[in-house]
Design a protein that fits this description.
Elements: H1 3-16, H2 21-33, H3 42-51, H4 58-71, H5 74-86, H6 92-108, H7 111-128, H8 133-144, H9 154-163, H10 167-173, H11 175-196, H12 207-216, H13 218-232, H14 238-256, H15 262-295, H16 298-309, H17 313-328, H18 333-350, H19 355-369, H20 377-386, H21 390-396, H22 398-413, H23 416-424
Helix pairs in contact: 1-2, 2-15, 3-15, 4-14, 4-15, 5-6, 5-12, 6-7, 6-8, 6-11, 6-13, 7-8, 7-20, 8-11, 8-20, 8-21, 9-18, 9-19, 10-23, 11-22, 13-14, 15-18, 16-18, 17-19, 18-19, 19-22
Length: about 425
């Protein structure tokens, strides 16, 4: 049996028995190495090299900043602002939930984190206003998917590290797709609210009150401007921006809102350490896994196999999108990106597809993974908050999945949506 066959078989068996992804990757690689001439000393060396990458420092800091802002009233201030313009339309609370998710995504970088932050406030509000529980949960879980697309995004950082592309370029590339998909979610929320005929009295929009609310929430609204504006203006790198985000969260929470306590700080540090540790251990073992795949020429074999089906980029992208949809039901987002990027990137580059464009497609298709059982993490978070069954919630997110799918196809076959902004600012090539 070949090394590649042993590697694949052990990995599948490990996943079937329910081992965590990092253990499955590590065990399968170690077993496969036993049938090769590669010295086992490569294991600790590769594990260390996998996590010893400077851009990865941004992940724990962005996670910590998001946790601090969530616990210090920033999320509530954002919601207070977006509810007023959205309140004039039918289904306004649903639309406001999506808008709040879009805004908070520019702080957190996490899908489930966005659902938890915004949903904890908006789902009870929608239920009290007479909205169906499943609708409330579907809107919050769908809006939360924007957490990995609107920068700063943890999956984009991981992809940028593995694909050796500019993380700032990836952040820029996510702006237009993030706005596009966010507006698509708003449209779906409005249409579904009208069809279900929720009893709701639209609130009149008062410009003076809205401006006063914006002024009271100015520090919260300035958060993405400070974090992302500094990156795009070239003032600091994404890693430096993550540090700035932490100090900004401490300033707003402690000096402005005065809601930061020792307990909240401890919980935020604990959340940041737990999530970051999970990410980094997967990165390390997947680097080891990818190294062995490279030794066995798996990327080249995969490229030849896919190009044997078709050499037209249109067909190849459609095939890859279908594969991502299926894998997303069973694999965690970061794991999918970490494992498949080294294998698939040579394929798409041979077809002339921009690596930044491919990265955006990869990230957007993983948005769907947050909404598809059995692994749909956003569904689990929202179902608990809305007190509704996972099965019922899964049905109510179908219109949102359809909206994301339409946007994915537009992004896939009209690359300018994702490449124009980074190319215009000098990140990538025309």
């Amino acid at each position: 049996m070949s090394t590649l066959a042993v590697l694949t078989l052990v990995l599948i068996l490990a996943l079937l028995v329910g081992l965590p992804i990092f253990m499955a990757l590590g065990i399968s690689t170690c077993v496969a190495l036993l049938v090769t001439d590669v010295p086992l000393s490569m294991i600790p060396m590769t594990l260390f090299r996998g996590v010893d990458q400077f851009p990865l420092l941004a992940i724990p800091c962005f996670i910590l900043a998001g946790s601090l802002m969530e616990s210090c009233g920033v999320t509530r201030q954002i919601i207070d602002v977006v509810r007023q313009p959205a309140g004039v339309i039918h289904g306004g609370l649903g639309v406001a939930t999506i808008l709040a998710c879009m805004f908070f995504s520019a702080i957190s970088g996490s899908g489930p984190g966005t659902v938890a932050a915004v949903g904890s406030l908006m789902i009870p509000s929608m239920i009290r206003a007479g909205y169906d529980r499943a609708y409330a949960g579907a809107v919050a879980s769908s809006g939360g998917t924007l957490g990995i697309l609107i920068p700063p995004s943890n999956p984009m950082i991981i992809y940028g590290v593995i694909a050796s592309v500019s993380i700032t370029g990836m952040f820029l590339a996510g702006m237009i797709p993030g706005l596009m998909i966010g507006l698509a979610h708003c449209f779906v929320a409005w249409i579904v609210a009208k069809r279900l005929r929720f009893i709701e009295t639209p609130e009149p929009f008062r410009l003076g009150e809205f401006l006063r609310t914006c002024w009271r929430s100015k520090w919260a609204l300035a958060s993405p401007v400070v974090i992302l504006g500094g990156i795009y203006a070239g003032v600091f790198t994404p890693v430096e921006a993550s540090i700035v985000a932490v100090f900004w969260a401490l300033f707003v929470g402690g000096a402005v809102n005065r809601q930061l306590t020792i307990g909240k700080l401890y919980r935020a540090l604990q959340d940041g350490a737990m999530i970051s540790g999970t990410v980094l251990v997967i990165v390390g073992t997947s680097t080891l896994f990818g190294q062995l795949l490279t030794f066995e020429q798996a990327p080249t074999r995969m490229a030849n196999f896919i190009l044997g089906i078709s050499e037209h980029w249109f067909v190849v992208l459609l095939l890859l999108i279908a594969v991502f949809y299926v894998l997303g039901m069973f694999m965690e987002t970061l794991s999918t990106i970490i494992i498949l990027t080294p294998v698939l990137l040579p394929v798409v580059t041979r077809l002339g597809i921009d690596p930044i464009h491919f990265g955006i497609i990869f990230v957007v298709t993983n948005e769907v993974a947050f909404l598809t059982p059995p692994l749909g993490v956003n569904l689990f978070v929202a179902s608990k908050m809305a007190d509704v069954s996972l099965e019922r919630l899964s049905i109510h997110v179908l219109p949102h999945i359809a909206a994301i799918t339409v946007c994915i196809l537009l992004l896939a076959y009209f690359p300018m949506f994702s490449t124009w902004l980074p190319h215009w600012l000098g990140y990538g090539k025309f």
